[in-house]
Structures are given as C-alpha cells and as structure tokens.
Amino acid sequence: MLHTRQMRGSPARSARYLGHLPHQCFSPIDGATGYSRSVIETKLILSTLLAKLGVAAAVSAGLARSRVFKRLLFAEKRSTGETLGLLTFVLAPLTLGVGMRFWVPNFLAADIAFETVIIIGVLIGPFPALAAAAILSLPAMLYHEYMTLPFNLAVAALAGIFGRFVEKEEVWSFSPFVDLSIYRWIRRNLRKPRFDRQILLLILIVALEIGRQWLASIYPHQLFALTTDAWGIRLLIYTCAAMVVGIPLKIWNALRIEQKLEEQQRLLLEARFDALQRQINPHFLFNTLNSIASLVRFRPELAREMIVKLANILRALLRDHDSYVPLHEELNFTDDYLSIEVVRFGAEKLRVVKEIDPETLGVLVPSILLQPLIENSIKHGLEPRVSGGTITVRSRMVGGKLIVEVEDDGVGISARPETSVVPRGAGIGMRNVQERLEVLYGDEAHFSVSSRPGRGTLVVIELPVAERLEVGRRS
Description:
The chain is α+β, with helices and mostly antiparallel strands and 475 residues long. The protein has 2 domains: 4-259, no CATH class; 299-464, Histidine kinase-like ATPase, C-terminal domain (Heat Shock Protein 90). Helix content is 59%, strand content 10%. It is built from 15 helices and 7 strands. It has helices at residues 11-17, 37-64, 67-73, 80-103, 113-123, 126-142, 148-165, 168-172, 178-191, 197-218, 231-296, 300-317, 327-345, 371-382, 428-441, and strands spanning 324-326, 350-356, 364-366, 389-398, 401-408, 446-452, 456-464. The strands form 2 sheets. The chain has a 5-stranded mixed sheet, covered by helices on one side.
C-alpha cells in the first residue's frame, strides 16, 4: 500500500493509495513538517493498524448485541435462508467499510475484508466465504482494483477448507494475543509434541497476508495492502491481521460460553424438577394404589373415581417442564390431588378451603406450581397433628399482578416471621418451586414463607401477568 513502487505514476492515484495525504508528503523531506516520507508512511501504517483493531472490536461487539445474529451464529445447523441472513449481518457494515477506504480521507482501517473472509471461511464454510469474498470485493472492483476479487476468492477457498479440517472448538479458542499463543504452543510441544491447529491457523493468516503484500507489489493499484520496507513494521502488519481475526472470535466465543452456561442452568433446573417428580410419583403413587385397593371391595365407585383422578395427575406430570397453563387448569390438577388425599386421610382430618377470584382463572402460570406447596403443607404441617387441619388456597389480582397463597393451620416450620428464603424444615418441593420462579421470572416474581410454630404456615407467590385467557366464571 505504502511501498515506494506503488507511488509511481500520476499524483492522483498515488494520493488515493496513501489515503488522500497532501502531495507535499511525497517529497523526500516535507518542508512543512520536517519529516521524511518514510516517517510519514510509518506513522500512517501504525495508526491504521491500531484503528483496524478498534474497527474489528466495534463491529463484532455491535453484532453481538443482536439476538438474531447470535441465534444464527451459534446454530448447530443452518438452512440456506439462515446462512444468507447471517452473511447479511456481517457483510452489510463491512462492505460499507471497504467503500469508506475510497470515500473518507485517511481512513484505510475500515477495510477489513481480508480478515472477514477468513473468519467466515473457518466458521461457516467455503461456499458462504466465496459469496462473502465476491460481495466484499465489489467496492474495490468499482475503483479498478481488479486483483481484489481473485485474491479474496482464493482466501475464501483456503480458509473454508481449513475450517472443514479442524474442530470448531479449536477455531473458537483461537486467541488474538499472538505472542501468548506462540509461547503456550512452544511450552506444550517441548513437553509433548503434537499437531496444533491453532498455530496452523496463525501460519495460514500470516502466509495469506504475505501473499497479499507480494501481489500488491507486482500489481500496484490493483490490490489493497499495507506494505513497507521496514521488517519491524511488517511484523506488526502480520500480527495485526491475526489479531483482527482473533478479536471477533474471542468476543463471540465469550457469548457462546455464556449461552452454554445458561443452557446448563436450564438443564439443571429440569433435572431438579425431574427429581421432584420422581419424589412425588413413588411415594404418592403407592399410597394412592393402596387406598384404591382397600376401596375396591366395599366402595367400588369411589375407587373408580380415584383411579380417574390419579390418571389425570400422572398425565399432568408428563407435561413439558417449561409449559404454562391457565390457573384454572392448575387448580383442577390440585383438586384431583387433594381429592385423593382427602380419601386417604379422611374428610374429618383434611379439610380444603378455596378462595379464588374469578378474574385470576385465565392467568398463565407455570405447570405444577401449587401441588408441591400443598403436598408440603400436608406432609410437614398436617400429618404430625392428630386432629389434622385445613388447607386454604387463595388467588387474587393486586396491581396487575397475580397473588397466590397456600396456607395451612398445621404445626408450622422453623422460620423467621417473614422471609423469602425457604426454611430448613420445608421439603424439596418448596425449594424447587422457588428456584423455578427465579429462573422463569427473575426479579419479577416474589416468593415468601411465613410460619409460626404450632399455628401454621403461609406461602405467598406474586407473579407478573404476561397473558390472560378468557374463561368462564367458576365458583
């Protein structure tokens, strides 16, 4: 780009390749500044390299703010339309950047098409890289840089083949800190020599950059490249090319790791929910079957009714973990559960009271939200009492939010008078409900437990109303 052989010819073309610097800068000694031409060239190269790093970081960070871009980038498999959408995200700003090299004086750093083609090749594949190379070459071709298209296509093919050859994890872990990469590579291979594809990617980038500079010297004004006779500056150019490739990979890899952690958190929640279901199923199932067996001979109609209710409960337990249901469906599920428990314990020992606001029946809530709380009240609150007790379920709307309460008058649990932390005496079901609400709603949901030993426990859930279905009024 700045090699003296490229400055021969008309002053206008030379000025274009020097970023529109004034004509007096081409003289051996600048009379205005007193600096030699080589000093001015060196300063322009160094400032351009520094700006290129900023452009790469700004563009990659800006793209990372888009949820659509992240979904397309991290997808395991993409359709043709999704691949085109991903290319559009990347190429729209960077093609404009290539044009800015011609339109904005002294802003050569906006052109990072060479590094972009490498990134697309190793991440997405050879064919998308070839398409990207053709699109990114258009502005340069319009300004008579005719070697740009064949060179970028060659870069796309080599980078795409390399991307097929290595594992994606090795590409994602490529570091822009080249000196550290080389040091770690030497240290690893001194102990146990092995084939390191990250260093191979570094070598590929440097080799392609050297090839670009060589072609630019053979075909002046037909291929954009920063060139100089100073070997120290050349090494900085090679290093900058590797860092411009590595910076987006580093930024996007951090987002990829964050998404993986969120996915693992979701899987952990599902595993805990599965554990809750396994806890419910054997304990509750065996007791219910024993109750049904005792009723078959003397009260067959009641036994048949319990079998139907048990089937409804098992069907609800098989539902998707992340599903939401209207509150009236959740209450129907708890009604089936409580009906079986009333038969098991006796109507004189387990009494149920419902105070339900009809306006709340259509509000969507997480499935199996109330049953663990009711089971906790029965097991830890009412079972220890000889006389049993009463469970009260309430719902109401307050300030656009749904308030659901589960209260019992049992023995209570050891806890402070009012707390959002599940007390030690509570079961795993209550803890699972609290964790599910934290994951599903974050700070928008509130879960509190109030208990007084010997007088009972009150659990209050406050949920935002995201959607409400129209349902008929019910008592």
